[in-house]
Carboxypeptidase Q
Amino acid sequence: MKRSLVLTVVASLLLVSLSTTAQGAAAPSLSAASPFDAAVDQLLSQQYPQSVVNTINSYGDSAIGFRMAGAPADDAAANYIAAQFTGLGASSVRKEPVPVDEWALKGASVTVAGRTMTASQFPGVPGTNGALMAPIVYVGPGRADDYADVDVTGKLVLVDIEFDDYWFNMTGEEAKRRGAVGVVFTNGANTAPAHADPNGLASDESRWSRTGLPAVFVTTNDGNWLKKRLATNGAVPASVTSKVSVTMHNFANPSSGGVGYNVVAEIPGTDPNAKAIVVSAHHDAYFRGGLDDTAGVAQLLTIAKAMKMSGTQLKRPVIFMATTGEEFGYTDTQYDYLAGAWWAATKSHSSSASDPAQRWTGSDGRIALVINIEDSPQQDSPLIASATSDLAPWFASVAGSSGDLLQGGYYPSQPFTLWQDGATWAAAGVPTVVTVAEDASYEGINHTDRDTSGLIDYAYLGRLAKFYVRTMTSASTALLPHDINGQADELTASVSAADLKAVGANTQAVDALVAAVSKYKAATAAYADRRSSISPARWTAVNDQLTSLERYWYTHLSGFDAGDSSLVFPFQQTLSDIGHLEAAIGLLQGGAANADAAVQELAQVGLTSVGLQFSPDVYTAELKRYLPDYYLRNWGGQVNQFWHVDITDKVRQIEAGDFTGAINGLQCVVANAVGGVNVRGAQTTSVHIDGLDERLRAMTAALNTMTPMVDNLK
């Protein structure tokens, strides 16, 4: 997916020594001489993983690749993967349809002054319907102020990507608002470290509007050549061609619209009643996707084939899932990625599935945990894992005793990332581990045509296959490894009565939450004390109870941060926003000298820093997509999201010197953020957004439900 875990590792990231065992269960007894390991070695000697990668990477909808969900190349990959699972002897092999916006990217180019430059394309962005000919002008990063002295009516615009500041659709909508007819993206001075190769092509999920302009991307060197020519000559004639074939999804009647396919296969466990483990990777890709994620699919198939060759059978069933639409599945939404996993977690394998065996999530869900394999393995790189908090100590424990396999080391990444398929599984209530094996250089390679099979370390791929089976064996032994006491510690550390009351939260609501957290923590501590004494005869029942407990935790205590980057508690982003709002109010009350500092505080509220860079109607359209009644929220609708409030008008008041008006307006925003607010919806006249107090009360109710569940773990 888009951002590697290297980018989401926070200051608490520490290297786990592989000479010691971290807190949790010891590594299981799959020795280096195990039949499974021998089978992996045999497959490596036969170059089986290489054959998988080479075959899948041979599928592309254009000369430079692309396997977008439901497009011919991705369907070919799904067919091949299903045939491989069938051939190796897996059970219940099937292709499961997923309604998607099929976006077949068939090639693009930009021609200026007789020079034709190969361009890359973006899923979700319309094509040109032949050659689009118009003058082209350079508008820098393409923000509102960049158009101050430029008339782009009827013109193409050359735009520098500002990858970490805002998304592609914002610049596309700004260009459309200004009258442009198309966008040519390239890299700018601030794009680094992304897109490192100056001759490399790039792409990404764009969050584009269904009615947006055509857009393509040219390399840094081609972009620089264009900029020099435009600096000398001003606007020059250009021709852009982007060949795209589109079939939109139809949720009501999926077979009549665009359809991609998740590929599912199973290896039964020795205990048919045990909760299953899902191991997943995605088969769609930008360009060829060597590490992201063709090599991940090769790991799935290598693990499954080696298990069947060696007769390896765990207590728990193992479900292999190669998903579609992880990179892109839908246009006109903030949540245009993770489509296949979202559909599986919330539709085809939800509690509404007619076949009980296919109910993976929900109150009677069949799966215990998910291991999602991404971006791996790059030579000499560490294994990096972003695990939900209940699984992190256990996974670190297995990694810590697996130095023979993880020779590049192991890093835990916290908080849990939302950039991979694991996000939708966690939000559906399934504890999840997302892994990558990459180094810092991959940040400049991801989602470019430089992500090729040449990056893959196949010997390391084999070691990782052995490690994942070692990990799954550990999770199949005795009680499930959920560290609910450590999870409670994380919650306890996050709930500060002083901080909540300082921003005006209801005193009774705060005190009730603190009491509920304390009771829950006491219950989990008692469970931790008695865990080792629970009778083996009770393990199956307790494991089922643990699964239900974790499912309740993640479906009731999960939220997203402002950038949709990390899993947080439902109140945390709201609390952060109120803190910045009140800090700004205090600064403004101190006088005009504090105006700049106040604006800096306000820029940290939600997506305000983005809104300040674009025209008001462009930002308004962006925020509309987060509303509860927006028609295409997808996995973003799995959590109770915070209020994406627009305060850019208050910033404009400050800039105009109207401090009193700004203070009054901001105080009103704070009151609504604390108490809750009704706002105009995307499709209805009014929708309610929970305030801080409501979020605290909901968390209290959830904890009061979960505490007896913990007490019954015995």
Summary: Confidence is low (pLDDT under 50) at residues 6-30. The CA atoms of residues 4 and 442 lie 8 Å apart. Residues 507-530 form the longest helix (24 residues). The chain has three domains: 5-56+89-99+260-289+315-450, 104-247, 479-714.
